[in-house]
Amino acid sequence: MLAYAIRRVFLAVPVMLIVASAVFLLMHFAPGDPVGVMLGPDASEEQRLALREKLGLDDPIVVQYVRWLSHVLRGDLGQSLFLDQPVTTALAERAQPTIMLGILSLIVAMVIGLTSGILAARSRGSWLDLSLMGGAMIGITVPSFVLGLLLIFFFAIQLRWLPVAGYQPLSAGLWESLRYLILPAITLGAGQSAFLGRMTRSMMLDVLGQDYVRTARAKGLAEQTVILRHTLRNAFVPLLTIIGLMTATLMSGAVITEQIFDIPGMGRLLIQAVVRRDFPLVQGAVLVIAAVYVLINLLVDLLVGFVDPRIER
Question: Is residue 308 very low, low, confident or very high in pLDDT (cuts 50, 70, 90)?
């Protein structure tokens, strides 16, 4: 297991290098100039040239890349052009809303997805199965921003049960913080729950057709015992990989949801940085998100190997 973990860590290094290089090149070759955004349209050419020289943007692209990459290897993601603070500080200040939203969205996705998948597999071909899988198809196809606006209209505006938008930190109280995250978590987790529900149903049906399940039923075991102890337990290993990928997606895919619900997280910060052409902040944010994605996938692979040692590593 230790050797496998070390190999995966070394394999993650070139992945992160490719991501860093791609983001750097895309940002610098894309249309737009942060100097023009910072100074405005009325700035003189001399002011533009002076600011470009101060920021190091007049250097050749290769020099800028090597300089940025050398700082990254030392743990320095640079200085935000607009926030006037280190990129690491800006990301750390906005990490809590994104992490909270990701965790709640994962809970929503797992509760709805696993429950609907198990019930659908248990009652295959019935009206319940068709209803649950039909709802899953709707959940997959409906865009998250549409679902978010519908939830805001019904639960925040019409019923006034929950806030329309905004965020309260944990220091304001657990329930007060959760009130602002319930609708965003449902919005972000609904699509993933639909996908997980369909995959759970498929995995469960594969296991339900095995000989040992029929033997367990022939022995007179209760259907609940057969489902939980024999079927779900053996179907959970492939589902664990799916849940891991889903976790990484939720943690890194909250950009639209944070924008809709005005949550000051990393996703909203990333959008603002792209609009402002804040090169260091965009590069640092994408690099951190990619690192989280790679780390979660590594942890899931290790967990799968621990749960089922038969899997070759």
Answer: low
